[in-house]
Predict the 3D structure of the following.
Amino acid sequence: MKRKLEKNCRGIPVSPGFALGTARVYRQYVPAPAERVLKPSAVVDELKRFRQALAAATHELHTLHTQVRRDLGPDFADFIQVQLTLITDEEVIKSTEAFIREAQRNAEFAYSQTVKLMSEPVAKSADPLFKERMLDIADVSNRVMRNLLGEDSRSLLEVQPGTVVFAHDLPPSEAALLDPRKVVGLVLEAGGKTSHTAIMAKAKEIPAVAGTGPLCFAVTDGQRAFVDGYRGLAILNPSANRLRAYDDEIERRRVYRQSLGALSSQAPVTADGRTIDLSANIEFIAEARAAKRYGARGVGLFRTEYMYLAKRRPPTEDEQFLVYAEVARLFKPYPVIVRTFDLGGDKVLAGYSEANPFLGLRAIRLTLGKLGLFGDQLRAILRASALGNVKVMFPMITTIEELRRAKLEVERAKDVLKARGLEFDPDFEVGIMVETPSAAIMADRLAHECSFLSIGSNDLTQYTLAVDRGNEHVARLFDHFHPAVLRLVKQTIDAAHQQGIWAGMCGEFASDLFGMLLLLGMGVDEMSVSPGVIPEAKGIIRSIDSGAAAEVVTQVLKLGTALEVKNLLRREIDRRFPQLAEFMFNSKGNK
């Protein structure tokens, strides 16, 4: 039997780790049911068959909802709840049954035509949230159709353990539901390091490669696949020699990670005695629990958009309060910083469609225009602040006027809670994300108006370099180490300190080994990273002298290109920090 040839696909490393498994290609299922004319005597049996398929699909979703709620958490289960609502829609059911009776057509055809007719207004809408809803409609109708046709389900929730998923990209609903106990690796044609699918994979510690282009898609279900999330490499039909070549590195990294386990209970203190607040970026309660296990000193970035996206509607004040309070209790006394909704951009909101959404009605601009949505969230955050460790952070601030308007809404929310007799923290802190060049340049003035500055390196890099971070065609131009970005980061940290407030970093830059070195040298007070990065980050922090790192920063800020910056960092780490150099370079590291 002829052995299948090995094929290498290169992309961008977006989530570290190695994975060997069985390929599963994610493509949208598009059923094409045949039209059959029924005999009048067969109509009753066809109605029964439709009801049985509907019941079977509903049972599957209930089972999934229970499983996801148990294994991943109630916030993930909201994605399934939306589909349960759709599948039990009485209008669709009654219209399908009427079609079967009156047109005397088979259930598959009747159901597909009914769904098509009722989803046409959604499909024709330019509203991007309606397109997200189309994904739900397609998922639900496909599940019913598979039961009618006797075919197996194709949801990524139901893959076999040891699966490597190949896809062009994943919609938010599928990315959120990736189960790391089943999906061991992820390969995407599109995107880059800071796409939301990539961030989700990193949070779930699933090795992932993005931006491969269409080269990988000679892949078919069932092929063996190996993912190298350190180098951005996916290998189809890996040879025995190839796998043996990886064995030593995999073992070295396993031993290294194991050695970091003891650090979970130790403080993130630099070699020269400076304590860094090492916290976690989270989106879901399950991530918060993982971050706690890894030894995070709080939450530096609580992304809240998925509370909206999962429900396909604005979450209520009470729904939000319960989530914020649960995370606050988990981390008390360490701080939990809740970012207000960063909707818009690639995280869509009903009623808005723009040619250039990243430069449009996004984040604080959007919420200041939807004060009902904003007020509900601010009151929920304030109520949770009664626990004593909750702060709020506003995204994409570009002007002092925006910050002042947002702070005014905080005061209005306080007034409402006072009138209700509800408690909140009287020393409630308000901060901003610095993620636009204007905010970085005006950081000294903005620092007068708030309690802390947290740098969002992903968007700061995107806007500084004019590179859409989710666009695979230009993703390779996206580089945190461009000197323009580094200068803005340093300027922001210095401005915060001059005004007597702390400065942190909550973007992917803070999860990078080189990035950590530079941040320590720039004097950052707090770093917020993906939960799985925390053990390694502690090891790096504890092995670096921040004074020596500051000397490296002085040299770096004189350079003109990102390549020059990274080359200098390699040399300086080898010379000044040999304990890092051994892992980073001698073990076929990720640099």
Summary: The CA atoms of residues 391 and 521 lie 26 Å apart.
